[in-house]
Design brief:
- The complex is a heterodimer of chains A (about 500) and B (about 350).
- With about 500 residues, chain A is α/β, with parallel strands linked by helices.
- Chain A contains 17 helices and 20 strands.
- Chain A folds into 3 domains: about 220 residues, Rossmann fold (3-Layer(aba) Sandwich), CATH 3.40.50; about 180 residues, P-loop containing nucleotide triphosphate hydrolases (Rossmann fold); about 70 residues, no CATH class.
- In chain A, strand 17, helix 15 and strand 18 form a beta-alpha-beta unit.
- The radius of gyration of chain A is 25 Å and the shape is globular.
- In chain B, a hairpin with a 2-residue loop joins strand 1 and strand 2.
- The chains are: A alpha/beta (about 500), B mainly alpha (about 350).
Chain lengths: ~500, ~350
């Protein structure tokens, strides 16, 4: 059964202005295997997929499909060559029937033979063991079945390669198993499946082989059986296990008796994070560690009331306060730099100046606008302080690079001089130079007495900047590490053991 | 120089259209700008445009704000103005003797009604997330019947001196009253923008409501507020319109004016899907539309066919100003520029694109 390679990618590179998304990556997919593509956010997984499917054109490298070099310029070309893709969000029409969804846009004939279409759909559903009838409306199927129908649609066109991009993220356990059954069925038929997911258990359950990417580079290709969970995590997060003995650059300046800046008891939010307790001391840098989806961002958002707060109480410097909206959090001196810079951070058409003064202006009040001169002074001050590269404060923020946009958002919060600043993935998707600048800034701010929570997908960044790490898994705090325990090995151990062995504080 | 072109770039469209219309009019007859004095007041083409566009200008201001914040349009404005002015007329008619106080109280009452109507649309849009056009469709459909019920009969007549003065001229003042009222209204709006953060809040909400919320702005409140402001605009516009007409025609008063108001916003260089906006642009746009209407009349186009010409003009205008043509023109311009530069100093040609090239994609 082993071996014939269907897809081979060699030295694939792809750059976007300012970022090298893929740096000579090799990837090989064999016939009838399930191949997991792993990596944290920004590792280059989706770029690689998009290069395969023709959404992006590669800058360099060679792709061969069954020994034949290919160069797709559009997604349709990839489809015609038998590469099917199913995305996380189900891209079907809910108001059409199952059969219609499977064949819509396929036929070039102006007349539809409904009977034949339904028959064909029925056969395909049966052969794949999908529990759905061709004539039922898609909405009446469960999410898992809908996902399977999307797969059936992709498979129908004589599919050789099937790409599943996080197909399981909205499914429950039972549904996942149904999906796995279908995947095994396809595997037996010789389809090569590329599987992307953030659930490690699923990778070990279903995949034959794993390719790990990190920062756009290939880490390696492994037989699934040859890896342990912890080895996989360490490969995804970077650095070899033993390699880290970093010296802490910063420790909180307070003794145990001092009153914490922020104290949250039993906090929970509508985003689904389990109730947690969280204490922040003055001048401390702490962080939430965990893989994507572990609840690290949700926890940060719960503190700032970015999602609807559903429970818990908050004390600022020992005094009980009510924080139900972002504005209330801001008024208590809490700042939050969101994870999704484009969606939640920048106001893209507005100038750098307006983006910088926005938060302070809101705190000052609707009826007290800053004069243009004052706003300009603020903007110029922070453009200089944070070394923001912009032609002028009047430039719309959207024409800046990602790193500079991020600095503008940082400037926005620093201008309000918060006591407790939460930075959720401040270094994601930006160039290495700016990453280092931001980490240095975090330590400098803490030395000046500000408390910070620093969240990053890159554990080594957190180890370098944080004096205390709260480890999360499955939307729950599973451990806390500080002092000498702060090594990547420890962090990975806690994640892998998943709270079975909670560390002592 | 560079800074100047940048801050006025959004006004290029309305101003160039206006210039074009003026040229057409001057070709037709050199007396276009002539102003005559009749009974102590100015008349002529320009005063007529300023007079005729009053309601449209005021409604365009409200439409600009609603569009910017809610990313949609309020199509009930003409109907809302008919309701507010019906209340005004009834109040005035029921008072025995009409004094200035009667008029003022009647006007304030109609403003309250305007606020109420704005709050109605605003609640649907901000709280229930109904699309603005659909939300305002309710008032658009039923509003004129409501106005008729308030009137109690067809076209009640507003026959008193003060109304007449408000609709035409006050003796001794050379400028027609609606023009003065419009200018005062624009001035008040300017003060509102100067003393509050309305622009920053509305633009932020229109561009990125998530970011607005995470920075302490409540998008619902801001969208609601723009509809309240729109309510005041309709009350003022209704007040001017009914005093101009001298009677309250619940069927035809400000009929279909929302089309012109939306058009004014578009000609003003504003995006109809919200975000950054220019009130100045919309005001110029509104006057441009009135100028266009009167230009077509002046060209002696038959009134029955006038709308065809207006439509053709607008289509040309929208195509010329569309992003597709704009990008094409920009490319053509760049090509000419690089070609010229390559003749003189070949080195500098690449400089202007440096920052664009740095823009990063994720």
């Amino acid at each position: 059964m082993l071996s014939e390679t269907i897809l081979e990618m060699k030295d694939i590179s792809k750059s976007f202005p300012g970022v090298k998304a893929l740096d000579s990556v090799d990837f090989k997919l064999r016939k009838g295997e399930i191949h997991a593509l792993m990596g944290e956010n920004g590792a280059g997984k989706s770029t690689l997929i998009k290069v395969i499917t023709g959404v992006y054109e590669k800058d360099a490298g060679l792709i061969t499909l069954q020994g034949e070099p290919i160069h797709f310029k559009a997604p349709e070309e990839a489809q015609n060559k038998g590469i099917g893709t199913v995305y996380q969000e189900i891209m079907l029409c809910p108001n059409l029937t199952v059969a219609e969804n499977m064949f819509i846009g396929r036929s070039h004939s102006p007349v539809v033979n409904w009977k034949q279409m339904n028959e064909k759909a029925g056969q395909l559903l049966d052969s794949l063991g999908i529990p759905a009838s061709p004539v039922q409306e898609l909405t009446s199927c469960s999410l898992a079945v809908q996902q399977m129908i999307a797969i059936a649609r992709a498979v129908d066109m004589e599919c050789k390669i099937l790409i599943l991009d996080e197909p399981t993220s909205s499914l429950d356990e039972d549904e996942v198993h149904k999906l796995f059954k279908l995947m095994r069925e396809l595997k037996a038929r010789g389809v090569g499946i590329i599987f992307i997911t953030h659930f490690l258990e699923q990778v070990f359950e279903i995949s034959d082989r794993i390719t790990v990417l990190r920062n756009g580079k290939l880490v390696g290709e492994y037989e699934t059986t040859s890896l342990s969970q912890i080895e996989l995590i360490s490969k995804m997060l970077g650095n070899v296990l033993e390699d880290i003995t970093k010296i802490k650059k910063h420790e909180p300046i307070v003794s145990d008796t001092s009153i914490p800046v922020f104290e949250g008891i039993g906090l929970s939010s509508a985003a689904g994070v389990r109730p947690f307790n969280f204490v922040v001391q003055r001048g401390e840098v702490n962080g939430f560690a965990g893989l994507l989806g572990s609840g690290r961002s949700e926890s940060a958002r719960a503190i700032f009331a970015a999602d609807k707060v559903t429970g818990g109480e908050v004390r600022m410097k020992g005094k009980r306060v009510k924080i139900k909206t972002p504005l209330q959090a801001m008024k208590q001196g809490i700042g939050y730099l969101p994870e999704d810079r484009k969606g939640d951070g920048i106001v893209d058409d507005l100038s750098v100046r307006d983006n910088i003064i926005l938060t302070l202006q809101v705190l000052k009040g609707f009826f007290k606008p800053f004069s243009l001169k004052q706003a300009q002074t603020f903007a110029e001050e922070y453009i200089k302080k944070l070394n923001i590269k912009t032609p002028s404060p009047n430039t719309p923020i959207k024409s800046l690079s990602g790193g500079n946009q991020q600095k503008v958002i940082l400037a926005r919060w620093l201008l309000t001089n918060p006591e407790f600043l939460i930075l959720d993935e401040p270094t994601r998707g930006i160039d290495v130079g700016t990453k280092v600048e931001i980490q240095k800034l975090v330590i400098k701010l803490a030395n000046q007495g500000m408390s910070l929570t620093f969240i990053s997908s890159e554990i080594d960044e957190m180890i370098r900047t944080c004096s205390r790490l709260i480890v999360m898994k499955d939307r729950e705090i599973v451990g806390e590490l500080k002092g000498t325990e702060l090594t990547e090995t420890d962090v990975m151990n806690v994640i892998a053991q998943g709270g079975k062995n909670i560390c002592t504080n | 120089m560079h800074k100047l072109t940048k801050s006025f770039s959004h006004l290029v469209l309305p101003i160039s259209v206006m210039t074009l219309l003026i040229i057409i009019n001057l070709i037709k007859g050199a007396d276009y700008f002539r102003i005559t004095m009749v009974n102590g007041a100015f008349y002529g083409n320009i005063p007529n445009i300023l007079f005729g566009a009053s309601e449209l200008v005021i409604l365009s201001i409200g439409m600009t704000l609603v569009t910017a914040a809610s990313r949609g349009q309020d199509i009930s404005i003409g109907v809302s103005a008919t309701i507010t002015s019906a209340v005004f007329v009834q109040y005035v008619l029921q008072a025995g003797e009409v004094t200035l106080l009667t008029i003022v109280v009647g006007f304030l009452l109609s403003c309250v009604v305007g606020l109420f109507l704005g709050a109605f649309n605003g609640t649907l849009v901000s709280v229930f997330k109904v699309q603005p056009m659909v939300a305002s469709l309710i008032l658009f459909t039923g509003g004129r019947s409501i106005a008729f019920m308030i009137d109690g009969k067809l076209s009640p007549i507003l026959a008193n001196d003060i109304s007449n003065h408000i609709g035409t001229v006050i003796p001794g003042v050379p400028i027609q009253t609606p023009i003065i009222l419009t200018v005062v209204f624009i001035a008040l709006v300017a003060v509102l923008f100067k003393t509050t953060n309305l622009r920053l809040y509305v633009e932020t909400v229109g561009i990125n409501p998530n970011a607005a919320r995470l920075n302490g702005i409540n998008p619902k409140k801001i969208i609601f507020l723009t509809f309240l402001i729109m309510g005041i605009c309709t009350a003022v516009a209704g007040f001017i319109a009914v005093n101009k007409a001298g009677r309250h025609d619940s069927v035809n008063l400000l009929k279909l004016i929302m089309m012109d108001a939306i058009l004014a916003v578009a000609i003003g260089g504003n995006s109809l899907i919200g975000g950054k906006f220019s009130i100045t642009g919309s005001i110029i746009g509104a006057y441009t539309i009135e100028m266009l209407n009167r230009t077509l009349l002046r060209l002696e186009i038959e009134p029955a066919t006038i709308k065809v010409f207006k439509a053709v003009f607008i289509i040309i205008l929208m195509v010329v100003s569309s992003p597709v043509v704009r990008v094409f023109m920009k490319k053509a311009l760049d090509r000419v520029r690089t070609w010229r530069l390559s003749l003189s100093q070949p080195k500098e040609s690449a400089l202007s694109t440096t920052y664009i090239a740095e823009k990063e994609e994720e």
